[in-house]
Structures
1.
Amino acid sequence: MSLPMGARRAAGGGSMNAGGKVPLGLKRKGLRIVVTGGAGFVGSHLVDRLIARGDSVIVVDNFFTGRKDNVAHHFGNPRFELIRHDVVEPILLEVDQIYHLACPASPVHYKFNPIHKTNVVGTLNMLGLAKRVGARFLLTSTSEVYGDPLQHPQVETYWGNVNPIGVRSCYDEGKRTAETLTMDYHRGLEIEVRIARIFNTYGPRMCLDDGRVVSNFVAQALRKEPLTVYGDGKQTRSFQYVSDLVEGLMRLMEGEHVGPFNLGNPGEFTMLELAEVKSIRMLRFKLPIIY
Ligand SMILES: O=c1ccn([C@@H]2O[C@H](COP(=O)(O)OP(=O)(O)O[C@H]3OC[C@@H](O)[C@H](O)[C@H]3O)[C@@H](O)[C@H]2O)c(=O)[nH]1
């Protein structure tokens, strides 16, 4: 079957079964956890879940794309702390687990401000912290490590088809390097690590100007503007709701397996299909607040 270039879809139901048999929260209650990028779209939802199950959470965020508003409802909670900090600088914290999310994920943002340094130096700094305090480290990598994949859907053993010099390379190659560093620290220094490869995710707290396709289409539909389908619209993507992703990240952290694991949705749309009113409605039923 010939497939459109640029198709990115998680293989096998998103492979979210790592640690799936461990009931969340039972053994892990009361941990000290740092979430880098915790004031961002995905990070803030993760923080909500961790706080809700009784953990103490330190959010580290430089507010490049994250917003205080996303975590303001935790201000005053003694189990919550917010630190303005860029992960390209080292930081010393006493924690049990590190969720390393810090990195702008929308092409609009990272093309404007290339983030190779965030991925490489930032990941190195957080791995250094994991080593120093003996914390378990989870890297949020991306489906973009598969580049313009020639295999469809992508399984985790596929090495990808990646351009080292393109406009999106700072992200793709930055995350690939971050994965390499993570595995090196795991093999060489016996740091406990987990790697998640996140596919296209949507939900509340995405910025309207995020630039990714779901928020663009919803914003355009609400404004009754034409939807901007890029290229021939035959490229495909899978879309997962943010709470499903957060569930997957927590299961991965609590489970026994290093990964990498694809976290995504096995279903897929072409961008032309997504632009149909029916598809937008299908996604919108879970999109009560986009702002
Ligand atoms: O308005 C738009 C925006 C985007 N698109 C198209 O929609 C597709 C999806 O693009 P998006 O910008 O939503 O994002 P991508 O799927 O390429 O990457 C996204 O998901 C994986 C994450 O790891 C990345 O961080 C995230 O940016 C692309 O083919 C793009 O060209 C449109 O057709 N119209």
2.
Amino acid sequence: MDVMMGLMSGTSLDGVDAALIETDGERFVRSLGFETLPYPDAFRMRLRGVLECPDDTALAKDVERELTLRHADAVQRLLASTGRGREEIRAIGFHGQTIRHDPDRQQTWQMGDAALLSRETGMDVVHDFRTADMRAGGQGAPLAPLYHAVKAVRLPKPLAVLNLGGVGNVTWVGPEDGDILAFDTGPGNALIDDWVYRNSGLVCDLDGKLAAHGHVDTEVLQALLSHPYFRVAPPKSLDRNSFVVVENLQGLSAQDGAATLTAFTVGAVVRAQDFFPSPPVRWLVCGGGRHNPVLMQQLSSELGVSVQAVESEGWNGDALEAECFAYLALRSLDGKALSLPSTTGASRPVSGGRLYRVAAA
Ligand SMILES: Nc1ncnc2c1ncn2[C@@H]1O[C@H](COP(=O)(O)OP(=O)(O)OP(=O)(O)O)[C@@H](O)[C@H]1O
Ligand SMILES: CC(=O)N[C@H]1[C@@H]2OC[C@@H](O2)[C@@H](O)[C@@H]1O[C@H](C)C(=O)O
């Protein structure tokens, strides 16, 4: 049994999530603590700048350093709030910030300087979780499925675990051991965030208030849902900016745009069911989207079975991805699989991640 730390900076660019777990890298996992360190607006803008101009290497280098130092800060805060010493923790799983993800070109880039994080924290760091999977013919994403399946081990199946972050991803867990299917569903909150930011300067549609006062433009929604991605069978995964919707939404009010994009996220989840081996008896939702009552209510009515936030099972829906990379870091150290043909399309179960040892610093 090991104590592991996981760090995640997700596609919604809202901050660093840091989680501590105790795990055997198999079926045992216990949450020990969680911290989130929100990014100030100015840094979020700089991150957006890198997403828009990933080839500006001077900017990328600068932002990577700041990003990594913010992660080191999150580590210190989590150690302080859990009362743990760094010597108690075997390693940090450091996901980094996805800047670009293009599985068709076998490219995925998670920004983050593992050597700097190791120096700053005095801890071993496992990083670069996605490359090995891509080299084995996989999408390099999603990687949360094995962790979702472990969390769901005692729950009635088939079950769907849905993450609504910047992008949406789902894990279908079937009744037999190892029965699992996963893929990115479509947009999560990123398109809504971008729209709301452009139209009102706010960072998100807090509690779905704009969407609740808007009307879905069904013609625009149909056009958005006619994107070929939704007809492609899994394995499949997305970049934060895979869907370009600005032109579709031209002329819509802030409220109607928010309502239509919220319905787009929901419609994409509904379409995901087409690929499940059998219908889930229940959906458990994690990620920031579960805080949006308009999204949750529409999911409930469209999916027709129980849709609940993962808190209904006592999980922390904000911590799950950071916990996942703590869990995967241990599996990486032990040479175990991080992904399967049915979760990323890799040709075989593949391990992955690279270890940066503190002694090397
Ligand atoms: N109260 C709320 N009302 C509406 N939306 C919310 C609320 N709280 C969070 N969100 C949404 O959740 C998003 C953050 O979700 P989360 O932290 O799960 O994303 P992420 O981990 O960065 O993304 P990914 O899982 O794609 O890597 C915010 O950008 C916002 O859009
Ligand atoms: C390339 C990348 O960073 N993808 C993220 C993104 O955010 C959600 C979805 O798209 C998922 O595929 C993935 O994150 C989680 C942690 C995953 O790998 O499971």
